[in-house]
Structure formats: C-alpha cells, structure tokens
C-alpha cells in the first residue's frame, strides 16, 4: 500500500532522512518512533507530498508521489501535529470548508460530513466555534478533517500530544477503530501508545532506520534468547538440574539467595520457546514452589533507548 525506497532528504550538509526503506501493508497500523530531530516529520511530509525528497521514491497505492502527486494526495488523510484549524468557524463550517478544498462531490458532501462527525463523535459540537472546544475535541476535529474525501491511508503526526489521559484513551480507541478500514502511519514519542495501537514499529534515529519489527519482537530483544527471573523454594542443585531438562532451556544460574532455601534464578531460553508453563509443571511435579516469575525481556522503552543512545554511550 505504501512503499518507501531509499528515501533521502538533505538540507545542505544535514541529512534529515538518510536512505530509508520500508513498506506498509494494506490495513496495517504502523508506528513511527524516534527522538527529537530523528526525521519523522520530514518523512511524513515527503509521504504526504508537502516537501520533495532529495533521492528515493514513495509510492502510495501504486502511484509515485513525484509522478502523480494529485492521485497520492487524494489517497492520504493527514493530521499534522498542529492541525490547521480555523478558530472562528464552527465545527460544521470548518468540515464543510475542508470538504470543498478536497473537492468532495456535492452529492456526497453532506453525507460524508455527517458520517465523519458520527465516527469521531462531534455531532454534539457541530454548531460550536472551534476556539471554544477543548483540546481533545479540537484534536477530533483535526482527525475528522483528515477523514474527509474518504482516503485509504491516514498519516497521523503525534495525534495524542497535549491531551489528558481520558482524551488519550478515547483517541487511541478511535485510531484502533479507524485501523479496521484504513492503512495508518502514526508517529509518537509515547512508547506504550505504540504498543497499544500499532502492529509494527519503525524506529528511526538520526535519519536512519534503527529497527523495524512488531512491538512484541522488539521487546523480546535483538538477540536469540528470552530471559526470565524465577524465584523458587527448594534445594539449589536439584532445582537447577530439573530446569536444565526443560526443552528450549539454554542457561540457568542461581542469582540471588532471598532466604535460606529461596533463590532467584536467571533462566535463558530459545526466543521461540515459551518455557513458563513447562517450568511451572516441572517445579510442581518436583514439589518446589515458584514464589515469583517475571520476564526480563526489555521493554519497548529500553529497546528504544538502546537503539537511539548507543553512540552517546560510546562517547
Ligand atoms: N527546513 C529545514 N531546514 C533545515 N533543516 C531542517 C529543516 N527541517 C528539518 N530539518 C532538520 O532535519 C532533522 C530532522 O527533523 P524532523 O523535524 O524531521 O525530525 P522529527 O523526528 O520530526 O523531530 P520532532 O520529534 O522533534 O518533531 C533535524 O535535524 C532538523 O533540524
């Protein structure tokens, strides 16, 4: 649905985007993550046709943004970080105005505005001036304008920034619902948001792609092992040998002695094998109670930091 190939954008000596390639499948919700200045907005602005690339290609639904900019723009709904709202218009007037800009046909306009207001829950504020709406409602108006013209693709730049927790939950729900009918690229600094909403994540740093994977796989870490901490009561050597017999175990080590016979063990296993159930049954069979069991896989936040701060640590 979206194909980005060898995309580069230079501003003089600075490469804001440096040879990035990725694709987004139809119906996918893709998260776009990166620290400040990583190149997220630049990439989104190129995909939406606001600025040209220096090198590389962007295709949306098979159309090249350079060769068929109008076709591409028709396929994309864009919610910039600061939606361009006209404060002295009512919600309805503004949506009507945007529908005209997007050349929505006269016969469809009324129905489309009603549908979008229904979907984004704006019906109650249709007659209110935008300047009198709360930040959350203003953001919904921004989302509503991106949906007019029935685009197949939505590009959402930091859609929940500045909202309160209730509003964040509502907008996330809405994005999830929109994901059923649209292909979405969503940029965010909020990592749990990306885990909650996106099926795949692109992490970008200094203009380059640092990782592309599902949030789950990223959390499992880059290596081939999964790590667990298990605190178990019982004799150490017998527990270690029982654990070593479990299929998929790579390594087990007594870590911290918590009590005379209670020890925390660090257990590494194949990334593909979830050993929590076999571990439970093995310990239950041997009569050694598991007091605590937790994953030591990295959180998405830790992965993100690891991928985006490596050079600083070296310095
Ligand atoms: N018009 C411009 N002229 C010169 N440099 C620019 C221009 N636009 C962006 N840059 C530079 O390109 C780099 C990437 O910027 P970009 O806005 O794409 O990052 P971002 O990931 O969206 O950051 P943020 O999360 O802070 O919005 C930065 O170093 C920025 O200073």
The top-level CATH class of the largest domain is Alpha Beta
Number of strands: 14
Classify the beta-strand content into a percent band. 25-35%
SSE order, as H and E?
Answer: EEEHEEHEHHHEHEHEEHEHEEHEH
The helical percent reads 25-40%
Question: Helical segment tally?
Answer: 11
Please describe the biggest sheet, giving its number of strands, its sense, and whether it closes into a barrel. 6 strands, mixed
The CATH superfamily name of the largest domain is: P-loop containing nucleotide triphosphate hydrolases
From the alpha carbons, calculate the radius of gyration and give it in angstroms. Answer: 25 Å
At CATH level 2, the architecture of the largest domain is 3-Layer(aba) Sandwich
Taking pLDDT < 50 over at least 5 consecutive residues as the criterion, the unreliable ranges are 311-315
Number of domains as seen in the coordinates = 2
Q: Could you report the average pLDDT, rounded to the nearest whole number?
A: 88
Bound molecules: adenosine-5'-triphosphate
């Amino acid at each position: 649905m979206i194909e980005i190939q060898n995309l580069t954008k230079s501003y003089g000596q600075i490469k804001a985007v440096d040879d990035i390639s990725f694709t987004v499948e139809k119906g996918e919700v893709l998260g776009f993550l990166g620290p400040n200045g990583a190149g997220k907005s630049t990439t989104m602005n190129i995909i939406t046709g606001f600025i040209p690339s220096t090198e590389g290609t962007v295709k949306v639904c098979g159309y090249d943004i350079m060769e068929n900019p109008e076709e591409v723009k028709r396929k994309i709904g864009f919610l910039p970080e600061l939606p361009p709202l006209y404060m002295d218009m009512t919600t309805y007037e503004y949506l009507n105005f945007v529908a005209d800009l997007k050349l929505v046909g006269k016969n469809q306009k009324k129905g489309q505005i009603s549908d979008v207001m229904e979907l984004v829950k704006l019906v109650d504020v249709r007659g209110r001036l935008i300047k009198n709406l709360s930040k959350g409602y203003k953001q919904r108006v921004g989302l509503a304008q991106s949906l007019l013209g029935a685009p197949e693709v939505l590009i959402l730049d930091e859609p929940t920034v500045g909202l309160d927790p209730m509003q964040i939950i509502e907008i996330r729900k809405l994005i999830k619902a929109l994901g059923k009918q649209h292909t979405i690229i969503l940029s965010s600094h909020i990592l749990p948001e990306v885990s909650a909403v996106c099926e795949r994540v692109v992490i970008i740093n200094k203009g380059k792609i640092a990782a592309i994977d599902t949030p789950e796989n990223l959390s499992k870490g880059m290596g081939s092992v999964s790590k667990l901490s298990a605190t178990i009561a019982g004799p150490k050597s017998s527990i270690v040998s029982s654990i070593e017999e479990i299929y998929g175990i790579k390594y087990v080590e007594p870590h911290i002695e918590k009590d005379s016979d209670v020890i925390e063990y660090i257990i590494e296993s194949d990334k593909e094998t979830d050993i929590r159930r076999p571990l439970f049954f093995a310990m239950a069979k041997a009569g050694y109670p598991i007091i605590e069991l937790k994953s030591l896989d990295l959180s998405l936040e830790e992965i993100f930091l690891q991928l985006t701060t490596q050079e600083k640590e070296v310095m």
